[in-house]
Amino acid sequence: MSRPSLFGSPLFLGFDHLEQMLDRVQKNADGYPPYNIEQTGDTRLRITLAVAGFSMDDLQITQEDNQLVIRGRQKEDTEGRVFLHRGIAARQFQRAFVLAEGIEVEGAWLDNGLLHVDLRRPLAEARVKTIKIAARGSGAQRPVVGGLAEPMIGGRTEEG
């Protein structure tokens, strides 16, 4: 049985990619490693992951389209070591974050077992676009010149 679509309404046109992104995020719901997301300024965000035991060589950060993907894979370093108890897991992880259009990754650093990734969100510009309406049908039509309709006077254009 398929689940109902979140964007199944006919009022949401062209949002199927958002539903696919939500599915990817839901599959990434594993709680490891724990992370914080904080706002560090009006247009700045920081993602902080707890990656104790991982070195910089064990971590990889990539941006794949609108997804920030952070992967960690520790090298198995048990040669010559005998564990009486092993409670610190050396497991690999992949954590993905969906980024809004225009968000840029500014940089990343590792400090005391915390991986910080700084993001910048540019200020949104208000966009208003007026759509011209062309006359169609059996009524008198005004010729369109350069995308603008010429005003009609007595069945002909001002110029003609």
Commentary on this structure:
8% of the residues lie in helices and 34% in strands. The chain has 160 residues and is mostly beta strands. The termini are far apart. It is built from one helix and eleven strands, in the order H-E-E-E-E-E-E-E-E-E-E-E. It has one helix at 16-27; strands at residues 35-41, 44-50, 59-64, 67-72, 93-98, 104-111, 114-120, 144-145, 148-149, 152-153, 156-157.
Distance N terminus to C terminus? 65 Å
Secondary-structure element order, as H and E? HEEEEEEEEEEE
Overall shape: elongated
Radius of gyration: 27 Å
User: Largest beta sheet, briefly?
Assistant: 4 strands, antiparallel
Number of strands: 11
* Strand content bin: 25-35%
The strands making up the biggest β-sheet line up spatially as: 1-2-7-6
Q: Mean pLDDT, rounded to whole units?
A: 80
Count of DSSP helices? 1
Residue ranges: pLDDT <50 for 5 or more in a row? none
Structural class computed from helices and strand pairing: mainly beta
- DSSP helix fraction: under 10%
TL;DR?
By secondary structure, this protein is mainly beta. The chain contains one helix and eleven strands, in the order H-E-E-E-E-E-E-E-E-E-E-E.
What's the SSE blueprint?
Layout: H1 16-27, E1 35-41, E2 44-50, E3 59-64, E4 67-72, E5 93-98, E6 104-111, E7 114-120, E8 144-145, E9 148-149, E10 152-153, E11 156-157
